[in-house]
Amino acid sequence: MQEFSIFIAPLLFMFFGLVTYLESDLPHRRLGYRVLSVKQTVETWRVSNKFAAKLLLIVGGILLVIGVFLNSYFRTLAIWELIIINLVEIIVMALLVVGLTEWRVHMSFDKEGNRK
C-alpha cells in the first residue's frame, strides 16, 4: 500500500486543477488562485485561475508519470523516501504554479488590472 502513496500529491494536484478550472469563472472566497494581484478584476481572476488550473493539471500529470516510473523501478522505497518525494513534488508544484501564474498575470495585465 505504501508504494501507492507516491501518487497522492499528483492526483490531488490534478483534482484541484480540474475543480479550479470548472469553477474559475467567478471569484470565490475559498477556491482558486487567490493573491492580491489577481483579485483586482473579474477578468484577472478568470485568466489567472484558468492558467493556474491548467498548470496543475499538466504538472500533476507529469508528476504522475514520474511516480509510475519510480514505483515500477524502485519498489523498495522506504517510507521516509516516499515522504521526501511527496514533499519535493509539493514544493516544485507550488513554485511552478505561483511563479508562472504571476508571470502570466504580469505579462497580461497592468497594476490596475487592465489588459495590456
TrEMBL record:
Record keywords, A-Z: Membrane, Transmembrane, Transmembrane helix
Organism of this sequence: Turicibacter bilis
A Pfam entry, by short name: SdpI
Lineage: Bacteria, Bacillati, Bacillota, Erysipelotrichia, Erysipelotrichales
Residue intervals passing through the bilayer: 6-24, 55-74, 80-101
Keyword set includes Membrane: yes
Protein's name in the database: SdpI family protein
